[in-house]
Design goal:
membrane; 51% helix; alpha/beta
Length: 431
């Protein structure tokens, strides 16, 4: 009795620790993760992609609920992340980083388009200095990109006549000749732009000196708007147009659950075909060789995916596993005590079955009736079935089963011998 109390205390503490761990696992497993994804205008590419991503994630991970939010663009999205009003956001790669933002994934490239009225003889980017130009909202990455490029050509807000308009108003203003040009960053093949270029006497202005621009703006990618992008019959543009592009990047707050981020990144690639079916431009999403080149610190959940670790479980339950380790000694101690008790119980249960076999053997030896032997055979196999179930459920040990097997074989042999004897003297015995 003197040792019973410490053992009992160890067992109680172990049960409490395991229960707490189980509760943590259950909470993490069934918790609904509600995230807000900041995009841009509801008529733009970011919003359309955000809705597609949210739908695919919901289809495969019901515990991740993503609400897509319309915003003013990249800079506004960064502010929302900092404020905690959004946990995910889409931004352009030229957007400034913030302390709490983390990169999650590179998405599709977006090309800078400069559309000008063909009647005005605008040939170079610097010719925009004397024209009226419409720019995207000031909170967008596109707005910031325009002024970064314009600075290279010695242009600033004081030397350009510009207005800030959302995309819908920009197209209307260009059609009404209220502006001479506009600047948009978008994926190639935008259907609204194709319609405008076919309707209006307009052309795409090249952005040249890309190598020089990259010296100050290393995030820029040199690209082209290929001939026929917006119309193949009467080619628009009639020849390749030099341009620059930036990558759209999915970012998150640094406190988003690592396991959730891992599954979001995994879904971008694992369920690519579903995403492309909803948003075709998702086909151009690039899987980086590592997360080192995303332009800002990478989220640990995304890093785990890019490095092809398999710690989805470890990433998600790292804290819980650390807690489990802290109670390991207590659990081992209690399990040892439980093993001793279980071995004793298993032996007692096996002994019970062996006693039943001894009784059956005795009844077999004393039986002279065919029907009684049939019943004894049935009892014998019922005992075997019970023993097999108990072995499967660890109610008896393998050693105990082996000690049971010999008397059972003896019993079945005795039964067959008795059946043979009865058959020889004219009784009908089962085969």
């Amino acid at each position: 009795m003197r040792h019973a109390r410490p053992i009992f205390l160890v067992i109680v503490l172990s049960v409490v620790a395991v229960g707490a761990f189980g509760l943590k696992i259950w909470h993490d497993r069934f918790q609904i993760h509600r995230l807000t994804l900041a995009t841009a205008s509801a008529s733009g590419e970011y919003y359309a992609f955000g809705r597609a991503l949210a739908r695919v994630i919901s289809n495969h991970h019901p515990d991740i609920e993503i609400t897509v939010r319309e915003t003013q663009g990249s800079l506004h999205n960064l502010e929302l992340i900092e404020q905690g009003s959004a946990q995910l956001a889409l931004v352009q790669s030229n957007s400034p980083s913030r302390p709490s933002t983390r990169a999650v994934a590179y998405l599709f490239p977006e090309t800078a388009h400069v559309v000008v009225s063909a009647e005005l003889g605008i040939q170079r980017f610097s010719d925009l200095r004397t024209k009226r130009i419409a720019l995207p909202p000031a909170g967008s990455g596109s707005y910031r990109l325009f002024w970064s490029i314009a600075e290279h050509y010695k242009m600033d807000p004081e030397t350009i006549e510009f207005v800030v308009k959302p995309s819908d108003e920009t197209y209307a203003a260009f059609r009404a000749r209220e502006v001479d040009a506009f600047f948009h960053v978008m994926a190639l093949g935008n259907p609204r732009l194709a319609e405008l270029l076919r309707e209006q006497n307009a052309r795409l202005l090249p952005i040249q000196q890309v190598a020089a621009l990259q010296l100050k703006l290393p995030y820029l990618e040199s690209t082209q708007i290929p001939m026929g992008t917006y119309d193949g019959a009467s080619p628009i543009p009639p020849k390749d147009v030099a341009a620059v592009a930036v990558r759209s990047v999915l970012i998150s707050s640094d406190d988003v659950n690592a396991g959730v981020v891992y599954r979001i990144v995994e879904s971008l690639y694992q369920f690519r075909s579903e995403l492309v079916a909803i948003y075709p431009r998702a086909a151009t999403i690039v899987l980086p060789e590592s997360g080192e080149n995303l332009g800002l610190p990478i989220h640990p959940g995304a890093q785990a995916f890019y490095e092809q670790d398999k710690p989805h479980f470890l990433v998600e339950y790292a804290e819980s596993l650390a807690f489990l380790l802290s109670v390991f000694v207590l659990i081992i101690s209690s399990l040892w005590q439980f093993r001793l008790w279980l071995l004793g119980r298993q032996k007692n249960r096996a002994d019970m079955y062996n006693l039943q076999l001894v009784e059956l053997i005795d009844r077999i030896q004393n039986s002279n009736k065919s029907q009684e032997l049939i019943e004894l055979r049935q009892e014998l196999f019922e005992i075997l079935q019970k023993v097999m179930v108990d072995l499967d459920k660890d109610r008896i040990s393998l050693e105990s089963f082996q000690s049971f097997a010999l008397p059972w074989e003896t019993a079945i042999s005795s039964l067959r011998h008795k059946e043979s004897l009865l058959s020889k003297i004219g009784f009908s015995a089962p085969n």
